[in-house]
Amino acid sequence: MALIDLIEESVVRAPLMAQNKDDAIRELVSTLAAAGRIQDPAIALKAVLEREAKGSTGLEEGIAVPHGKTAAAPALAIAIGVAPQGIDFGSMDGKPARLLFLILAPPDQAGPHIEALAEIARMSRSKAFCAALASCRSPAELVAMFKDE
Is pTM, for the whole model, over 0.90? Predict the structure, then answer.
């Protein structure tokens, strides 16, 4: 399944209200729960925070990809957050994350999880596209950019 097939307005927070990493992760997990994509937000949150404790998922150029494997996700689920003010994610280049992709997957399904991470990595090579995504002011605007891409 392509990443774009998972992106709809119900799983996008633009703008994120959170001001720090843990709150941003919590907000994106709550977004997935509200969209009916995960079953137990507390278990899902724990999985992502435990993964984050092993090493930051902040990449470069303002992108972070917090993720985890959990039985709370019956299938691959993704939420996207736009943080106009930037959130310190301990990124490799020291820049705050403005574009967050939270990915959850069932523990027994490595393939879709890895494919989603790879697709985000490929997309992140386009600095112009990522900058445009990070400037989106609404879920509808962000979803439209993915559909047009």
Answer: yes
